[in-house]
Amino acid sequence: MSRRSRKSIGREGKNTKESRTQAGIYVRLSNEELEESDSIENQMQLLREYVDSKPDFQLVDIFCDNGYTGTHFARPGWKRLMKAVEDKKVNCIIIKDLSRLGRNYIETGKYVEQYFPEKKVRIISVNDGIDSCNKSFETMHMEFALRNLVNDFYAKDISRKVANVMEAKQRQGHFMGGCPPYGYLWSKEGKHKLVVDQETKDVVREIFNQIIEGKGYSQVARNLNERGIVSPAGYRFQKGFYRKESMKEMKWWYPSTVRRIVDNPVYMGDMAFGKSQSRLFLGEKRIRLTEDKWGICKKTQEPLVTAEIFWKAKEVRRKKEV
Fold first, then answer.
1. CB of 144 closer than 8 Å to CB of 105
2. pTM, entire model
3. Does residue 162 sit within a domain?
4. pLDDT of residue 205
5. CATH number of domain containing 103
């Protein structure tokens, strides 16, 4: 029997390596999904076991989006996965089920039916029994479309329910923001009640007084910066409401920062809600609403300025902007 040269063996090894499936595991969980079976840990375990059962699969990396909705694809883990696809490091994406990929019917369909085939990327949905490499996948397009549509309807139903619950709580005077407005802190009773922040209350009052005196937003912001008063964003970082290191540098006041304070009825003791609207269940993306469409719940917390001062400041600015 003739011997094979070292060169041919090396070439064969190289080809074997290149022919292996370069797999990327993708896991996702939104804040609204509470099923234990959908937990990030369970998804990872299921998909790792699947990859381990395939001798020709090589796990490149695990791409994770924990706390991200599937209604859009602006997710850090997903973006990292797409970069790996573009760089040709991943040619197979493995997911627990199609809803992990996304719950937007149109965008998810574009990825699976257009983008991935163009990039020659294989999709495996373990629990759905879907593998785009199988010949049967061609006949499963209708099933895929139906599953995708169901996932889309599910997301819109969740959106409607969350919107209704949020609005009901806001009408009762509950503050539903991610961090308290500048000038306030969370109450010891819970995050949905506000108490006056003794460290920043006078800054808020001074802003309103300067506006009434005729100063513009830019003048007020410049004055605060010159005196070294930390901006709301920088102050929230100091208090631990913001944890990203980039927020540490957000120490400057801007005209828009001052304007948001002057426009917010929270400072006269009222709670505004419905400032923006995102009704996914009607196919709408988030939009900013005009003040006349805001909802107002009266006397929900201790005011920092009187109603007279609040409306006087608004009137002064209105006249200047005419």
1. no
2. 0.47
3. no
4. 97
5. 3.40.50.1390
Which range marks the domain in which residue 121 is found?
6-156
CA–CA–CA angle 13, 15, 16 (5° rounding): 65
3 state DSSP class of 6: helix
Q: How many domains does the chain have?
A: 2
pLDDT digits (tens, 9 = 90+) for 149-193: 555 555 555 555 555 556 666 666 556 566 788 999 988 876 678
110-157, pLDDT tens digit by residue? Answer: 888 889 989 999 999 898 788 888 765 555 555 555 555 555 555 555
Token pair recorded at residue 159: 């959106």
Identify the residue whose tokens are 């070294």: 228
Q: Are 262 and 273 in contact (CB under 8 A)?
A: no
CA distances (Å), 315 to each of 56, 117, 279, in order?
71, 59, 33
b or e along 280-294 (b: 16 or more beta carbons within 10 Å of the residue's beta carbon)? Answer: bbeeeeeeeeeeeee
Residue 1 burial class via C-beta count within 10 angstroms: exposed 0-12, middle 13-18, buried 19 and up? exposed
